[in-house]
Specification:
Order of helices and strands: EHHHHHEHEEHEEHEH
Distance between the termini: 12 Å
Number of strands: 7
Largest sheet: 7 strands, mixed
Number of helices: 9
Strand order of the largest sheet: 4-3-2-1-5-6-7
Helix content: 40-55%
Shape: globular
Radius of gyration: 17 Å
Length: 210
Amino acid sequence: MLVIFDVEGVLYDAEYLPMLAEKVNKEREIWEITKKGIQGVINWEDGLRTRVRALRGLDYETCRAVADSLPIMTGARRACRILKSRGYRIIAVSGGFTIMTDRLKRELNLDYVASNELIFTDGLLDDVLINVDSDKSKSAKSIIEQWGERRADTVCVVDGANDLKLFDISGMGIAFRAQDVVKDKATTILDEKDLARIIPLIDAHMSHVS
Protein backbone atom coordinates (compact mmCIF):
# COMPACT_ATOMS: atom_id res chain seq x y z
CA MET A 1 0.00 0.00 0.00
CA LEU A 2 1.33 3.38 -1.02
CA VAL A 3 0.51 7.08 -0.70
CA ILE A 4 2.08 9.66 -3.03
CA PHE A 5 2.08 13.28 -1.86
CA ASP A 6 2.76 16.51 -3.67
CA VAL A 7 4.87 18.83 -1.51
CA GLU A 8 4.14 22.55 -1.88
CA GLY A 9 0.54 23.24 -0.90
CA VAL A 10 0.14 19.69 0.44
CA LEU A 11 2.94 18.59 2.82
CA TYR A 12 4.15 22.19 3.13
CA ASP A 13 1.66 25.00 3.68
CA ALA A 14 3.66 27.31 1.42
CA GLU A 15 5.29 27.75 -1.98
CA TYR A 16 9.06 27.99 -1.71
CA LEU A 17 10.09 30.25 -4.61
CA PRO A 18 7.53 33.00 -3.87
CA MET A 19 8.80 33.07 -0.26
CA LEU A 20 12.38 33.22 -1.49
CA ALA A 21 11.45 36.01 -3.89
CA GLU A 22 10.39 38.19 -0.97
CA LYS A 23 14.11 38.51 -0.13
CA VAL A 24 14.68 40.44 -3.38
CA ASN A 25 11.27 42.10 -3.73
CA LYS A 26 10.29 39.94 -6.68
CA GLU A 27 7.44 38.06 -4.99
CA ARG A 28 4.73 39.41 -7.32
CA GLU A 29 6.69 38.45 -10.45
CA ILE A 30 7.53 34.98 -9.15
CA TRP A 31 4.06 34.29 -7.77
CA GLU A 32 2.42 35.14 -11.12
CA ILE A 33 4.64 32.61 -12.92
CA THR A 34 4.07 30.07 -10.12
CA LYS A 35 0.29 30.37 -10.41
CA LYS A 36 0.37 29.95 -14.18
CA GLY A 37 2.45 26.79 -13.79
CA ILE A 38 0.15 25.33 -11.11
CA GLN A 39 -2.88 26.14 -13.28
CA GLY A 40 -1.27 24.55 -16.32
CA VAL A 41 -1.51 27.65 -18.53
CA ILE A 42 2.25 27.80 -19.26
CA ASN A 43 4.91 25.15 -19.88
CA TRP A 44 5.82 24.07 -16.38
CA GLU A 45 9.52 23.42 -16.99
CA ASP A 46 10.05 26.77 -18.71
CA GLY A 47 8.22 28.49 -15.88
CA LEU A 48 10.45 26.82 -13.29
CA ARG A 49 13.64 27.82 -15.08
CA THR A 50 12.37 31.39 -15.47
CA ARG A 51 11.56 31.66 -11.77
CA VAL A 52 14.91 30.30 -10.62
CA ARG A 53 16.89 32.49 -13.00
CA ALA A 54 15.00 35.55 -11.78
CA LEU A 55 16.46 34.80 -8.33
CA ARG A 56 20.04 34.23 -9.43
CA GLY A 57 22.65 35.57 -7.05
CA LEU A 58 20.86 34.77 -3.81
CA ASP A 59 23.29 33.20 -1.36
CA TYR A 60 22.97 29.59 -0.20
CA GLU A 61 22.45 30.56 3.45
CA THR A 62 19.37 32.62 2.55
CA CYS A 63 17.97 29.83 0.38
CA ARG A 64 18.53 27.31 3.17
CA ALA A 65 16.99 29.56 5.84
CA VAL A 66 13.82 30.05 3.79
CA ALA A 67 13.58 26.30 3.15
CA ASP A 68 13.93 25.57 6.86
CA SER A 69 11.20 28.11 7.67
CA LEU A 70 8.52 26.51 5.46
CA PRO A 71 5.55 25.53 7.64
CA ILE A 72 4.55 21.87 7.52
CA MET A 73 0.86 21.50 6.62
CA THR A 74 -1.66 21.14 9.44
CA GLY A 75 -2.26 17.45 10.01
CA ALA A 76 0.67 16.28 7.86
CA ARG A 77 2.66 14.77 10.72
CA ARG A 78 -0.39 12.96 12.07
CA ALA A 79 -1.42 11.69 8.64
CA CYS A 80 2.04 10.30 7.90
CA ARG A 81 2.34 8.76 11.35
CA ILE A 82 -1.00 6.95 10.98
CA LEU A 83 -0.24 5.79 7.45
CA LYS A 84 3.14 4.40 8.47
CA SER A 85 1.59 2.61 11.46
CA ARG A 86 -0.79 0.89 9.05
CA GLY A 87 1.97 -0.32 6.78
CA TYR A 88 1.74 2.25 4.00
CA ARG A 89 4.84 3.38 2.19
CA ILE A 90 4.97 7.14 1.58
CA ILE A 91 6.46 8.93 -1.43
CA ALA A 92 6.75 12.68 -2.00
CA VAL A 93 7.11 13.93 -5.58
CA SER A 94 7.98 17.60 -5.79
CA GLY A 95 8.59 20.18 -8.46
CA GLY A 96 10.51 21.91 -5.68
CA PHE A 97 14.01 21.25 -4.50
CA THR A 98 16.14 18.94 -2.36
CA ILE A 99 17.02 21.94 -0.16
CA MET A 100 13.42 21.81 1.12
CA THR A 101 12.44 18.15 0.66
CA ASP A 102 15.36 16.61 2.58
CA ARG A 103 13.87 18.06 5.76
CA LEU A 104 10.45 16.56 5.00
CA LYS A 105 11.96 13.13 4.42
CA ARG A 106 13.49 13.26 7.90
CA GLU A 107 10.63 14.85 9.81
CA LEU A 108 7.77 12.89 8.24
CA ASN A 109 9.67 9.59 7.90
CA LEU A 110 9.06 9.41 4.15
CA ASP A 111 10.24 6.33 2.28
CA TYR A 112 11.23 8.06 -0.95
CA VAL A 113 11.41 11.62 -2.29
CA ALA A 114 11.84 12.84 -5.85
CA SER A 115 12.62 16.53 -6.37
CA ASN A 116 14.70 18.99 -8.36
CA GLU A 117 18.02 20.55 -7.36
CA LEU A 118 19.07 24.16 -7.10
CA ILE A 119 22.55 24.74 -8.52
CA PHE A 120 24.84 27.05 -6.59
CA THR A 121 28.08 28.48 -8.00
CA ASP A 122 30.51 29.96 -5.49
CA GLY A 123 27.73 29.86 -2.89
CA LEU A 124 25.25 31.81 -5.04
CA LEU A 125 22.07 30.54 -6.74
CA ASP A 126 22.78 29.99 -10.41
CA ASP A 127 20.35 27.53 -12.04
CA VAL A 128 18.19 24.44 -11.58
CA LEU A 129 18.63 20.77 -12.44
CA ILE A 130 15.22 19.37 -13.35
CA ASN A 131 14.78 15.76 -12.24
CA VAL A 132 10.99 16.01 -11.81
CA ASP A 133 9.19 17.54 -14.78
CA SER A 134 5.51 18.23 -15.48
CA ASP A 135 4.86 14.48 -15.74
CA LYS A 136 5.44 13.64 -12.08
CA SER A 137 4.30 10.06 -12.62
CA LYS A 138 7.63 9.31 -14.34
CA SER A 139 9.45 10.12 -11.11
CA ALA A 140 7.28 7.69 -9.13
CA LYS A 141 6.90 4.78 -11.56
CA SER A 142 10.34 3.21 -11.20
CA ILE A 143 10.24 3.02 -7.39
CA ILE A 144 6.61 1.78 -7.45
CA GLU A 145 7.58 -1.00 -9.87
CA GLN A 146 10.62 -1.81 -7.75
CA TRP A 147 8.42 -2.16 -4.68
CA GLY A 148 5.75 -4.12 -6.57
CA GLU A 149 2.90 -1.86 -5.46
CA ARG A 150 -0.49 -2.31 -7.17
CA ARG A 151 -2.25 0.66 -8.72
CA ALA A 152 -5.41 -0.29 -6.80
CA ASP A 153 -3.48 0.09 -3.51
CA THR A 154 -1.96 3.46 -4.46
CA VAL A 155 -3.35 6.82 -3.33
CA CYS A 156 -2.13 10.24 -4.44
CA VAL A 157 -2.79 13.56 -2.72
CA VAL A 158 -2.21 16.64 -4.88
CA ASP A 159 -3.34 20.19 -5.60
CA GLY A 160 -2.02 21.42 -8.97
CA ALA A 161 -2.44 20.80 -12.69
CA ASN A 162 1.19 19.68 -12.89
CA ASP A 163 0.28 16.77 -10.57
CA LEU A 164 -2.46 15.28 -12.74
CA LYS A 165 -0.38 12.51 -14.33
CA LEU A 166 -0.07 10.98 -10.84
CA PHE A 167 -3.78 10.13 -11.06
CA ASP A 168 -2.91 7.77 -13.95
CA ILE A 169 -0.85 5.53 -11.67
CA SER A 170 -3.15 5.69 -8.63
CA GLY A 171 -6.31 3.86 -7.69
CA MET A 172 -7.48 6.85 -5.65
CA GLY A 173 -6.79 10.52 -6.32
CA ILE A 174 -7.43 13.08 -3.57
CA ALA A 175 -7.67 16.75 -4.57
CA PHE A 176 -6.43 18.60 -1.49
CA ARG A 177 -7.39 22.29 -1.49
CA ALA A 178 -6.85 21.96 -5.22
CA GLN A 179 -7.25 23.74 -8.54
CA ASP A 180 -10.61 23.12 -10.24
CA VAL A 181 -8.97 21.07 -13.01
CA VAL A 182 -7.67 18.70 -10.31
CA LYS A 183 -11.01 18.47 -8.53
CA ASP A 184 -12.66 17.54 -11.82
CA LYS A 185 -10.44 14.47 -12.21
CA ALA A 186 -10.11 13.40 -8.56
CA THR A 187 -11.76 10.45 -6.86
CA THR A 188 -12.55 12.64 -3.88
CA ILE A 189 -12.04 16.25 -2.76
CA LEU A 190 -10.81 17.65 0.56
CA ASP A 191 -11.03 21.42 0.94
CA GLU A 192 -10.46 21.53 4.70
CA LYS A 193 -6.95 22.62 5.67
CA ASP A 194 -6.14 19.50 7.68
CA LEU A 195 -4.21 16.76 5.94
CA ALA A 196 -5.13 14.23 8.62
CA ARG A 197 -8.66 14.29 7.18
CA ILE A 198 -7.42 12.14 4.30
CA ILE A 199 -7.29 9.13 6.65
CA PRO A 200 -11.06 8.42 6.80
CA LEU A 201 -11.30 9.09 3.06
CA ILE A 202 -8.59 6.50 2.35
CA ASP A 203 -10.20 4.06 4.80
CA ALA A 204 -13.55 4.36 3.04
CA HIS A 205 -12.00 3.86 -0.37
CA MET A 206 -9.78 0.93 0.59
CA SER A 207 -12.69 -0.91 2.23
CA HIS A 208 -14.00 -1.44 -1.31
CA VAL A 209 -10.66 -2.53 -2.81
CA SER A 210 -10.06 -6.26 -2.88
